[in-house]
Amino acid sequence: MTPRIMIAGTASGCGKTTAVCAVLAALVNRGVKAAAFKCGPDYIDPMFHSRIIGTPSYNLDGYFMDKETLRELLFGHTRGMDIAVLEGVMGYYDGLGMEDTASSYAVARDTGTPVILVVPCRGMGKSVQAVIDGYVQFRSNSNIKGIFFWQLAPSLYPAMKEYCAQKHIRALGYFPYIKEAQIESRHLGLITADEVADLKEKVQLLAKAAEEYLDFDGILDLACTATGLTDLEHKSPEFLREGQNASGKKRVRIAVARDRAFCFYYEDNFALLQALGCELVPFSPLADRALPKELDGLILGGGYPELYVRALEQNHAMRNAVRAEIANGIPTYAECGGFLYLHRELTAPDGTRGEMAGVFDGSCVFTKKLQHFGYVELEALKDNVLCEAGGRIRAHEFHRCVSDLCADTFREVKGDKAWTGFVSTENVLAGFPHLHYAANPQFAVHFVDKCAQFQDKRGKQATCTDIRQSPLS
Question: Does the global pTM surpass 0.90?
């Protein structure tokens, strides 16, 4: 079983992402093969993980997936690795509402993963010890086994280390503030990895600091105490098996928008689509002048199209290509940023206005406040390219934008609130929520079936064209 640790924090913004990046970079420099994971629905932190380790980082979300799927995914993605590093989400105990569900604590508990808690110490002395006591004692099975002291005065570390020893917790080092290694933030958290021009230099500064200030022998020893996954040998995740065992599996080509404007994707969604027989072909709405050839489906993921309004508008060829392909009937799924791109017009937060693909005759405008934020439950009100009416799936929504299109395809529920979401045509589904197919793999199966049907239709059209152009006709 692969050794593993979780690095969690007392709250968002406490330094846990920087700590994870520092540890991953130091491990890579040591020649250690590391797997990386992010608790919760976040897209941005895994991008940083992936840039550092050179392989995909995966999400572990207790709202999207049941306990067994979560454990199977963790086990499956750590095969052949030397160590796995999990990054927590928000504060360690923060989950769905006031419940443990979807919290970092629940992931650590359900997977038997030892936890290193990042404790921000700026402006505190002895009070740091009270914070440690509170987090460790809040649950009898907290799994908190180690502490990173964030921005602790070096002179205080010996006392903190002694205190941790008394509590049978490992003090695993302290981390100073490194101005040159700071990464900017925006409304969804950190800016994306591709936007950091000197990311490699920043990461190496973090790696150097990790080697100097953290106890790596202690970290590795703690990772070796992980338990809880020994029953999963030779078992792949059930939701991926569903794809591998799908009857009538047919090879289809699906174009996926992937560039700086469209970069929010769950890696396991791609894994399921590939298990279903899909060839995923990346393209850039920013830079490419045409879509890939012979497509059977189109996916436009989330991201930051509002930052690239002018560039997207000026790429007339791509906008026309997307509009024409969709008019030709290609099955299309677009979420959040991809949904914005399908509007006639987009107004960015700074007031910049630009024409988009124009698949839907509507406009979208960014506001100064969040419109919908958090986990939601979806129920289809009518048939669409992902499911039939009545289909259900859990999702996550986080946006500041409003659209003037009439959403009528799904009922979205969050606690005691409900509203309608998504717009659709016979071959297009587009809306703000983000989906992880582990919440309902049949949504992916349904979409691939639609793509296969379109492939058959396209093939028949091509055959008819060949006949009409034949000298014998």
Answer: yes
